[in-house]
Every structure is written in C-alpha cells, then in structure tokens.
Amino acid sequence: MPHYPALFALAHEPFICVDNEGRIAAVNQPAAQLLESTSAKLVGHAFADQVHPEDRERVATGVTRAAEDETMVEQACRLRCAGASYRAVVLRYGREPTLGQLVIAVRELTDLDELRQQRDDARRRLAAVFETMHDIVFTTDEHGVLNGVNRVPPGLTVADTIGTPMLAFAAPEEQEPMRARYDEVRETGKMVSYETLAIYPDGRKENYSSRLGPIMDGDRSIGVVLITRNITQERQAEEAKRYAEQQLRDYMQRSSAATASSSGSPRSPRTTCRSRCARSRRSPTACATSSRRSWPRPAATTSSGSATPPSGCRTSSTTC
C-alpha cells in the first residue's frame, strides 16, 4: 500500500491487497506468517486459491458486493496455509478507491472465538425455532422469574411477562401444584407434563397443556423452560361432544320408555273380550261364549220356513 506503507508494515493485524483481477497484490508480514508463507510466494497468485473450496463461492459473492457497493463486508471462512492445512479466520474487506484495490483485514479465529461463533450460531438457530413454534415457550431463572419468551398470549405484552414470577399467571388453585412441579424439576432434573388453568389480568381463564424441563449448567439446574399450548378450544369441543352424546342417550331412553308404555304388556283373549264387552255394554259371559264358538253354521229351515239357530248360540237379538 504505497500511501500507507508504515501502517501496512507495522500493523499487527494481517492485511492482504487484491487487485481488480482477483490476484494478491501485496501482503504484510503478519499475513505472510498466518499463511505460513512469504510475500514473494503469495503475490501474483489468485486470492481464491487461498480460500477453502467450500467457502469460495460465498467469499466471491462478498468480494463482489464490497467492490461494487464500496461497503465493508465481514465474513468467516477458512484460508489455506502451507502444507494444505486450513485456518478459520474472519475476513473484513472493503474497496480502496484511490488504488482501485480491495483491502482485506484478516483475523484468525482462536478457540475462544470459535466457541463464541458456535454460541452465536446456536442462539440464532434457537431464536428461529422459537419464532416459528406454535407453542409458547418461557424460560425462568433459578428463582422462577420469567426471563425469556418467544411470544405472549393475547392480552399480554413482553413487558408484562419478563421479570414476573411464573406462578403469577397460574390460577389460585393451581399455584401450589405448580410450585411443587417446579421444585421437582429443579431437584430431579427430569421433565414433567401436565395440564393447568391459566388466569389473565382481565380475569379470563384458559386451559393449557404444558411441559416443564430443567436448564442445566453442568450438573446444576439454573432455571426451567416451560413449553405450553392453549387447549381451551379442544376442551370446549370435548365438553360439547360429551353433552351431545348425553343428550342423545337421554332421548333414546325416553323414547324407549314411551314406546313400552304405549304398547303395554300382551293381554289374554279373555281380557280383550272383557274390554270389548265393557265398550259394547254386553255381559262378559255372552262375549266369552261368542269368542269360544267358531263361525256359525248355516241355519236349518223348519217346516214352517223359519230359520233354526245353530246349536250353542243364544237366541237373543244381541250377537257377539
């Protein structure tokens, strides 16, 4: 870097300059040491050759964006050193307009840096999971105070929840069981599942199915995570189904009872005959006689021409 030779040479941080064709134009001593080479061996070679094959496309995209937009771009990648080994580094590059070159500052990732990067990646993944979950996820500290939530139920805000004891949202009759479950998870390190009734500041009550698990730091519990799902509509639907089924059973029982009452028990022929006689105001004896005989035989004709009634039939004017 002709304009800043002293800064370029004295900097502890590795610097690499890349020309418009992507070749290494200059490196300072820390950069040469990082790549386990010398300036004479590196200058003139394509910078992409120093990048791990799996990272080249991503680095090329960043370089193009920095060159075209003249903005600073930072990326993590792996650079090839002597002996075909690779080192994890963070590249920060931007375009130097007076030289028309890309200046790349290189920082090697130490074990601590790598751990920090893994931690940040884990946090980003966890945040993405939390944001896309249908369930509500709470975390608490070791005292049971809420210190994290992915979303809040309707009627609440994040400010209403963070810093509030977890038991504050449990119905009065649920607070002691909730406290017992919390202590059990903290002491045993095991997850528990349960259903509970939550109460809101406006007095609403809703059913939740929940799982409570420990947050461990080694062998010590430092808090709990609560994953809960609103099942109020499911419970209402189940109750409506039970009510409808009970109504149907009651209706079927009433219908069966009404049918049995209207049909009554089977009656004997004599009982039936007595009923008919009562309706026609006839004597039961005559009706019984009529009910026992068969159809009348043709009447015999006397010498005088009058019909003689069949044997066994009364000659009264009333017939059965």
From TrEMBL:
Bias (Low complexity) occurs at: 254-275, 283-312
UniProt keywords, alphabetically = Coiled coil
Q: Which residues form a coiled coil?
A: 105-132
* CDD domains the record matches: PAS (cd00130)
Is the Coiled coil keyword given for this protein? yes
UniProt KW Coiled coil keyword:
yes
Q: Where is this region: Disordered?
A: 251-320
Q: Per the database record, which ranges form the PAS domain? A: 1-70
InterPro entries for this protein? Biofilm_reg_signaling, PAS, PAS-like_dom_sf, PAS_4
What's the domain of life for this entry?
Bacteria
Identify the NCBIfam families for this entry: sensory_box (TIGR00229)
Instruction: Name it.
Output: PAS domain-containing protein
